[in-house]
């Protein structure tokens, strides 16, 4: 679990799918004057350098966010582009935000944030940009279980594990069920990879059976390199904000053209 570093994959097609929907949700939620809480179980370092050796080694950002920007996949007023523009203005044209800094763009002074990251190097880097939030160097599910229901009760939880621990697939439905019972008004968003070996399918079936009203958004794309097992990206959202289904279908149509 402590070997995964997202710098090799930052800005890939899965990030584009996940972050486009996350930015849309945060933009929608912060349009109302009521304060909210933002929680994240696997925050990563928060800020990535797409000119670095990690991104160059995989080329995933070139096929992802960089391609999306060059080909104008999103309208200029899309919330993700608004966040990205500010972050690149602050940190340079090759900067790419992880979900914590996307959240930071939208969160207001009255909002509350909790970010968990267990990897020591990633947590240290997160501390450099995550001063707006309560930082937790602990298991993200343990943090969510302890904090939920948060104050304010209105808000969003992003669950975005690396899935390097295969037990995550078995544990996630149980974890989400427990959190949803404690925080029945929270928007709970789970990202998961679509894999050639279909190991995600039993988890997804359990989630859909337990939460039939949740929103499901899946996109497919070519593997990043020969033999790479991830061929798509999924988001499973409990209590989806109004309009998210329409936005998710629009994003899915972009991927259908790949």
Automatic annotation (TrEMBL):
The record marks 4 as: Interaction with substrate rRNA. One of its GO terms (molecular function) is 23S rRNA (adenine(2030)-N(6))-methyltransferase activity. GO terms for biological process: rRNA base methylation. Its EC number is 2.1.1.266. Keywords: Methyltransferase, RNA-binding, rRNA processing, S-adenosyl-L-methionine, Transferase. Pfam families: RsmJ. S-adenosyl-L-methionine binds at residues 19, 42, 99, 117, 139-140, 160. The active site is at residue 160. It comes from the Bacteria. Belongs to the RlmJ family. Monomer. This is Ribosomal RNA large subunit methyltransferase J.
